[in-house]
């Protein structure tokens, strides 16, 4: 990608987003009052903070996702050259898959893939 | 059979995979039985490692073994074996029973990382090995995660190692920018002492100094050592540190040999700072884990005396000292671990009158501390003596003088612990208990190592024949 | 100024400004969001250099994966809404001084270095080349790191599960 196309990309992006914002502020009828800014809580005034502590499960899912995401980074280039790589490349990727497959199996067995 | 060159690592990967498969397929109620087979497997791997085999280069020079690196790997493996023996008692506790095989797997993967790091032929493999040796350790430091201090130790370890890796990588990127390659053999030729390369070296050295916990990069050490489970603490202070010292010595002697005039100054200053500050802080400690943490900082300063020699003698003394240090520190930590597991007591004051109730443990501790302090005829004396000789050979008499003064200070605080055990009286001493067989075996190996290395001089000659032509 | 230089300056400015905002922000969730901008601009720099694959990884892994992970782990903590206390002047000024002097030193030393020859136009590094060197086991091949990374990922996975799994009771 050349610099010109990047510039064009930014200009078009800014233009589209700007247009959308502009239209939505001009076209629809507007009325503002303090109640509108509050979070909808079945009509009762909201209490306390909206921040709450997340379940550790999200974190576990995210990190497992990330590890296999990293794995795809290495598998993708192999997949591109798979045909010319020959048997050596195949053995390498099999070892790679085997080790990470063990990881997946472990995560599965430990119930890390199950939502509690 | 080219792959025989990589036999150490491949065997370790193999037993890691076996353990993982067992962990996956074994029913939960039989997990405890994994300890003995795991120990036997690792023991077999350790013995197989000593069998002489081919050395050479693999993967286009990315992986290099020499007789020297094989020796280093064997030393580390023996150390890890002792750590495993010492942790059995702790692993059998109720709260750790669920994660016994994970403990083995994680610790083994750090060992794999260290071995790849020692055998690396380029900076990429070196860095990968370093990361593989540190990331699982953070999980291990936080192993008792429901204890606040253990979790804190894990967080502190991962933060400092991330920071130090960042600094190290920044330095390596500068080296790559100036030289255009990461292979050690090519980097050597490209290094010419340009200011950018010197800056790069300083970043690299700072990154490694974090791992070895050299002053002024030592601030994480005491907290992490105190919070982590005691076996992990001994692993961190002995195996991790030993491996980092070894690879740093190799890299300084080979890759950075052309800028030796410059790095010698850096090592000189950090050696003095590390010895002195480590010692001064060790005096004030009341908790034995923190005490041993600072004592291990001071010991790292002494090791630098051998590195600064930059000679065959220097290399031999560094390896010899690390070997002795592994046995002495693991001996001391082993005793602390046994007592902490059985009674939960970790303060120096708690050890008052220990000799009356547990004479064997006290004697082991005394021997280990004597070795750390460098009192003859235990091996530690010769370790320190050779280090001083290596520095004196270079004419660095002031440095040697400071080191000797520091040894005297260290003598004081090591003897404080010995005095507590043997002379102090206490109303409520630690009661007599029989420690488990594994710990006793581990401690026996430590004592045997200390005595044999101290008395049997061919070991030094044995190491010496490997270090020939390293620099 | 060529368009290339312009885009380089734009991305670098975004990186510098948002990096400073990341470390000075007293609200941790905002710091994570600022970090996102830094990572995306870094991807932009890779695009400029025509490292298309690296840029794609930067976007999916860092901007997509790691920032999400950071935000999840922030939301895990119980003090998300709290503002961190601002550092006192006694800490602020020495820290700023050290950072500035360190940065200045690095910049001066890097500028001083006489880098041999400059590449006029960068070649597009295509995925095919990356794939070939990733699986080649000869000189300049990366087969060994490729395999060791799998062990590293496995160890990281096991470590994460050991730490984050709930206690069975």
Describe this structure in words.
The complex is a heterotrimer of chains A (116), B (471) and C (169). Chain A has 116 residues and is an all-alpha fold. Chain A is 66% helix and 0% strand. Chain A has one domain (3-109): NADH:ubiquinone/plastoquinone oxidoreductase, chain 3 (Methane Monooxygenase Hydroxylase, Chain G, domain 1). Chain A has helices spanning 3-26, 56-80, 82-109. The radius of gyration of chain A is 25 Å and the shape is flat. With 471 residues, chain B is an all-alpha fold. Chain B has one domain (2-466). In chain B, helix 3 packs antiparallel against helix 10, helix 10 (230-253) packs parallel to helix 12 (288-309) and helix 16 packs across helix 18. Chain C has 3 domains: 1-84, Up-down Bundle (Four Helix Bundle (Hemerythrin (Met), subunit A)), CATH 1.20.120.1200; 87-113; 126-169, no CATH class. Chain C has 6 helices and no strands. Chains in contact: A-B, A-C, B-C.
Give me the Rg of chain B, rounded: 21 Å
How far apart, in Å, are the first and last alpha carbons of chain B?
29 Å
Structural class, from secondary structure content of chain C? mainly alpha
- Distance between the first and last residues' Cα of chain C: 66 Å
**Can you summarize the main beta sheet of chain B?**
2 strands, antiparallel
Strand content of chain C: under 5%
The major pleated sheet of chain C works out as: none
Please write out the topology.
The complex is a heterotrimer of chains A (116), B (471) and C (169).
Chain A (H helix, E strand, L loop, with lengths): L2 H24 L29 H25 L1 H28 L7
Helix pairs in contact in A: 2-3
Chain B lengths: L6 H19 L9 H16 L5 E3 L4 E3 L1 H25 L8 H19 L4 H19 L6 H32 L4 H7 L4 H18 L8 H7 L2 H24 L6 H25 L3 H22 L2 H32 L10 H4 L1 H15 L5 H15 L3 H26 L14 H19 L2 H9 L5
Antiparallel strand pairs in B: 1-2
Helix pairs in contact in B: 1-2, 1-4, 2-3, 3-4, 3-10, 3-13, 3-18, 4-5, 4-10, 5-6, 5-10, 6-8, 6-9, 8-10, 9-10, 9-12, 10-12, 10-13, 11-12, 11-17, 12-13, 12-16, 13-15, 13-16, 13-18, 13-19, 15-17, 15-18, 16-17, 16-18
Chain C lengths: L2 H22 L3 H21 L3 H25 L12 H24 L14 H9 L7 H22 L5
Helix pairs in contact in C: 1-2, 2-3
